[in-house]
Write the structure tokens for this entry.
Amino acid sequence: MDPVRSGDFSNLEVDVASLPQYEQVKLHSLSKKYLLKLHINTSISLTFFMGGILVASFFLAGYQLIFWLVFGFFVLLFGWSYYNNYQLAKRNGYGLRERDVIYRRGFIFEKVTVVPFNRIQHVSVERNFLDKLLNISTLKIFTAGGSGSDVNIPGLPPETATALKEEISERISGHA
Amino acid sequence: MPEYDFSQPQRQSKVGLILIFGTALFHLVRNLWVVVIYFLVREVDRQIMLLTILGLFVVLLLTLAYSVLAFLNFKFHIDEKNREFVLRKGVVSTDVINIPFEKIQQVNFRRNLLQRLIGVYSVVIETAGSQDKEIEIKALFQEKANELSERLMELKEAEIFGGREDLEAAAEESPEKATFKKPKWEYHVSLLTLIKLGLSSNYLRGVGLILAFYFTLRDQFMLDEVFPNEIPGQQEFVEKSSFVFIMGLLLFGMVITVAETVIKYYDLNLKQFHESLQVEMGLRNNTKVNIRSSRVQMLEVSTNPVQKFLDLYTLKISLASSQDDLEKSRIKMPGLSPEVVKQVQKFIFKQESSEKVTILPHKIVLWRKFSRGSIPAVLGLVVGFIFQFPTLLLGGLVSVYLILLSLYNYFYFQRLKLGLDKDILVKTSGLWNRKEQFLEIYRLQAVSVRQPLWYKRRGIVNLTFHSAGGDISFNGVRKKEVTPLVNFLMYRVESIERSWM
């Protein structure tokens, strides 16, 4: 509980330059299977939409133009989705430092979150049905900051996820 | 002052019975009023009337019996051996609720109108557990309520610091006890201030309330049939009456806004004790909350130019909540003088903030806001051309709009600022509704740096600071400028071994 040694920070500017840089941490990318998972999810919705369009085309026999417009729109949309998946799998990544965990996600809207270990409430590893099929796990990191600062790292090999979970748990208790 | 012994199971004050019965009756009447009206309006023969009255009598007796049982079975005590607060309740089945001392978050008081009449308080114990978020002991006299709340908070503190041999805390204990009853300072918001506050707030809220009320009424009773839409008459008359109608609506909105402000914040009273800030307010639902500085996660001070002139500032305090319902754990205190705001800040932060580093947003923020705001103007132009409005009028309107838009956005942009000193982060924003948000660095839970693809080339990012009392976002800043800031913040959070709650 001892108050911060204020003497250390009399000069903000100089100190900051020598601090560890979060930007320079080399992030680990997610498992290749994560891309597969994203593609599977997209493909499932693609099937549904295409089915819907096919059914609709029977009723819209007289409106060829509308049909092709809608069809074209969905082709573009899903084309974009697959490309987005590819970019996500390429860009998303996590990194562990001595005192915090960094997670970067998003393609169009990139978001990098840094969560210090001494602010993590708990960690858990979760797998849904698809995850089990593909043999990957999601690591969930919970903070008191609510959904905004919680971090979910999907597409990790189960061993990595468990190892990370254990490592983080240990560091949390080290701080508590 | 009499000493109360909480170690034995005990009931609420005897008047609690009235409260329980009264509340039960209220619910009964609320559910049965349709039946009552039915009998009043319709003619019924004597026999059914008699049966009904008999039935009502039985229901009343049952309610009374229920209330008595509920009162008798409601018992609470403090079990110091097992370190918990125990509450037994229930009429048919018995519920036992045990709250370990360390799970107690906060003890507050609450009063509704009936409780005010009887002169009792509800003691509300907020817990961190998941089973019940809070439990309520509905009828205790003020002294006993105070005693219970103090006792519980003491035990909770002892539980938390019990592990360590805290000599400092023990040393602090005695003077604190002596001064506990006497607040360091007290501030009371008068009725006049509240009226001024209501008058200087946004009436649109009041108008919104009226509209919402009107629409629910219309849905329920089909007001259309009573007031047919088509009023026969001249166009001129309609125009005049709609002007009167709008003015009337605004006036009524003003009245409603004032009334709402007065009812919600009636008798707002702040008292600062050694360790906590006591806030009491409300006419219909009076609450008394003890805020400990350690639980405060974020602070917001806001005012508008009119209120600033009248020396009225609003404080919003965000308390820690592990759930996502942040709005609920936010306490709003309007109508404070700048001195009081300073005092509260001093109480919460223990020091004054002296901004050392200031970060301003990139011009792109201004440009984006402006271009978004000019969309209506463009739409207006297009529509105007299609319907062939007079060019002069159209051009005039659009230019006036654009000039106002530019002015507003320019000054809004000028005010946006993120300040930082050694310990506190301050965001300043808002042109009419000016606000300053304060976040102590060690309360930070995480920091997010967001960057849309189109900001990448310019090297601009949006920042979000996450805390347990909500997030603060600051958008459109140069990455080169804020990366050191993020590094510094993380360094501070990670190197301070100070509990954020």
Observations:
- The interface with chain A takes residues 320, 322, 324, 326, 356-357, 420, 422-423, 444-453, 456, 464, 466-468, 470-471, 483-488, 490-491, 493-494, 496-501 of chain B (CB under 8 Å).
